[in-house]
Design a protein that fits this description.
Oligomer: single chain
Shape: globular
Strand content: over 45%
Structural class: mainly beta
Helix content: under 10%
Length: 115
Amino acid sequence: VTLVESGGGLVQFGGSLRLSCATSGFTFSYYDASWYRQAPGMERELVASITSDGARSNYAKFALGRFTISRDNAKSTVNLQMNSLMPEDTAVYYCKADLYRNEFWGQGTQVTVSS
């Protein structure tokens, strides 16, 4: 099982990034998927989640209106479009896939927003 995030980097205040998570080794279409983030000295927190069929998504308050989660089950990927980025969005972003008691995490991708 592998989950590999990509798309992170350094962006200026107000900029955009699109994160992608490529998965393999399990039947991704059966799993709900999520993006989390962890800033230095902070606990990991949920950013957004999406159901296995992509029909429903859920966002943290800070992500509403700025971030969009999506998935492509044919490609076994989950994406996070982030707009209007702010310095407080600086964190390592992780993707997760879960089904019942099975939970798989990626290694994370760094997002840094400069002011």
